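Hi L.,

As promised, Nuclear transport factor 2 family protein:
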Amino acid sequence: MKQLFFLLLVSISLLACGSKPQQDVYSTVDDEVKQTILQQMEDSRQGWNDGDFERYMQVYWQSDSLCFMGLNSITYGWQNTLERYQKGYPTAAHRGTLTYTFKRFKQLADDCVIVIGSFHLKRQMGDAEGNFSLVWKYIDDQWKIILDHT
């Protein structure tokens, strides 16, 4: 089941990324691209930890086509995703302190990268953690998340 879901996710990702796929669909990401994405994720993480959700959301594509897939729902659009975070994490106690562990960076196409990892929220009310896959696309000279599956 997990393999079928992963193949479906990769297929959707390739369709979302308009350029011709590279020879090896799972090729290694260029170090400069990887460092750019890591820096953006760090800036975003600091925004979360500061309680600044708009800063946290700067890594996301500001489009109605942005897709966020959570445990029990799918949210479309940058503004709707922002509001989802604001509603779901209304206080510092709910928000906690966010950390990431990155497990895999793979180039799907010249303008498309998938990042797989996990997150951890350290909170007084009980920690929360889980896995994510993020599809990044190079849009208007910037890397942006177009699909977040958390």
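The radius of gyration is 15 Å.

Thanks again for sending the construct details.

K.
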